[in-house]
Specification:
Layout (H helix, E strand, L loop, with lengths): L1 H24 L5 E7 L26 E7 L7 H9 L7 E5 L2 H4 L1 E3 H18 L14 E2 L2 E5 L3 H12 L5 E4 L23 H11 L3 E2 L6 H7 L8 H14 L1
Parallel strand pairs: 1-2, 1-3, 3-7, 7-8
Antiparallel strand pairs: 4-6, 5-6
Length: about 250
């Protein structure tokens, strides 16, 4: 049954992407935009909606020829965006970067090591491995393990921000706070230090010229626009889409 469901979901996603690509043919003379997101880029309450362009904030960009990269990896990171950008020959009028929570959120050491193993080749190619070895800047314990943020503020300042500042027409979409006493649809508590991710987010927001700052969302807004403190519902995605559009 699980195999059949996976086949159906995959087929549905391919059909939706094919239809969307067909729509793009009609937009070839319009300005181009790249949207590169982690799992927050689309609705997640159904497998049929995840990574599906029709359940994202793409509807806000009807006047654009849009390329989208919705959570292409298990740990979709700013590192993946940099790799994609540096290896792409295509020029865009606007680039939307909706990543960072994977890099900034505290995670158990076992998850940190798993992510590190998947990013190691890219880090090695950049000469950045030393930033990630022998870390001792642990936060609280979570699920019986110490926690770490994948990217330290020092690494962001010295290596990431200089690259992002050179990306023409970049719009960075930030991170909203997490409510400690509300989990929404998430099935367990998040680390008590979860909002430490806002430190790195603030650093990026203050350093780039064109950003969407979500760090000021209050409790009502978080419950209205997210399903679990992190991922957005339809209203949340529409709101972010309008915010991005107003910044273009």
């Amino acid at each position: 049954m699980k195999v059949f469901k996976k086949i159906v979901v995959t087929l549905n996603l391919k059909i939706c992407r094919f239809i969307y690509r067909a729509f793009l043919i009609l937009r070839k003379n319009k300005k181009s935009i790249l949207i590169y997101t982690d799992s927050r880029g689309t609705e997640i309450d159904s497998p049929f909606k995840q990574r599906n362009p029709f359940y994202s904030y793409l509807q806000s960009f009807n006047e654009y020829d849009v390329d989208y990269k919705f959570c292409p990896y298990k740990f979709t990171s700013i590192l993946d965006f940099i790799s994609y950008y540096e290896n792409s020959n295509k020029k865009y009028d606007v680039i939307v970067l909706h990543c960072g929570i994977v890099d900034f959120a505290p995670r158990p050491v076992s998850s940190y090591n798993q992510m590190l193993s998947l990013k190691r080749d890219f880090l090695k190619s950049k000469g950045w491995e030393d930033y990630f070895e022998n870390r001792n800047d642990f936060l609280n314990d979570y699920l019986g393990e110490k926690t770490l943020q994948f990217m330290s503020t020092g690494f962001i300042e010295k290596e990431i921000l200089p690259i992002l500042k050179e990306v023409d027409n970049l719009i960075y979409v930030g991170i909203n706070p997490v409510l400690i006493d509300w989990d929404g649809d998430y099935w367990r508590k998040r680390p008590s230090s979860i909002n430490q991710q806002l430190v790195q987010d603030k650093l990026v927001l203050q350093s780039l010229d064109n950003t969407i700052d979500l760090s000021g969302w209050n409790e009502d807004e978080i419950k209205k626009y997210t399903v679990d403190n992190v991922h957005y519902n339809k209203d949340g995605l529409n709101k972010i889409g309008r915010n991005v559009l107003s910044n273009i």
